[in-house]
Amino acid sequence: MARISSYPKDLTVVDNDSWIGTSSPGLQTRNFTASAVAAYLNLNGKVVVGGQMSFKWSNTQNGGSGTISLTGGGGEGDAFNTLTQLRISKKELSGQRVIEFLTYLVDKSVLIGQGDQISQFGHYTITSYTVDPADPSYYIAALTFIGGNGAIAVEGTVYTVIHFNTSAGGGDVTLRQNFTAANQWVIANTTGKAEPSVTLIDTSDETIHGDITYTTATQITVDFNTAIAGSSILN
Question: For position 217, what pLDDT does the model report?
Fold first, then answer.
C-alpha cells in the first residue's frame, strides 16, 4: 500500500467525498462521507457558536440532558404560535451550561429554529426563566410569541436557540404574527414603539380591517365583527 503522503491533495471537498474510519459500536471499518459528517456536526450541536445553543426536542417532560420539552410532554406537531412555556435542560447538547446566558435573555427576544429547516421557527420574548421546583436540572421559560412559521417536528429533532433582535443595526422593525380564527387578536408589541403601524391581512394575504386598540405599551388588541384568521404586521 502506498504511503498516505504520496496521494495527491484535493483542496475542494464535495458532499460525496469520503474518509475511512472505524464505526462505534462494532469497531467496523467504514467509509464516512463529507455530507454525513457535516450533518452529524450540525444536527448534534458539535460545532459551538457563541450565543447559539442546541437542544433536542423531547415529547417527554424534562426528557434528559440537552433537551427542551413542554410541561406535561407532547408538542410534536404543535404550531410555534401556540408555545407559551418550555422546559429547558440546564445543559445544551454540547454539554455547555446555559443557565446564566438564558437568565440574561429574560425580557429579550430569542429565535427557536429547526436545525435542518430554516423556515420552521418561532420568535419569542422570554418573559421569565426560573428553576423547575421539581427538578433543578431543568428551568422553565415563559414565552410570548412574536412571529414565526410552522410547527414542532418529530421527537429528537435538533433546535437552535439564539438571541434574535430584528432591530439590530438601526434598521426599522417589522414583526409578523399569525392568528387562528377569532373575533379578537391580541398582538405582542415588541417593536419598542408606543404605537407602531398595524397592517392586518387574511390567510389569502388580502388586507382586512378591524378595531385596533393600543392596550398597553407592549400589547395591541384588534376586534372583528366575525371570527377571522390571518396575520398582523407591525412596523
Answer: 83
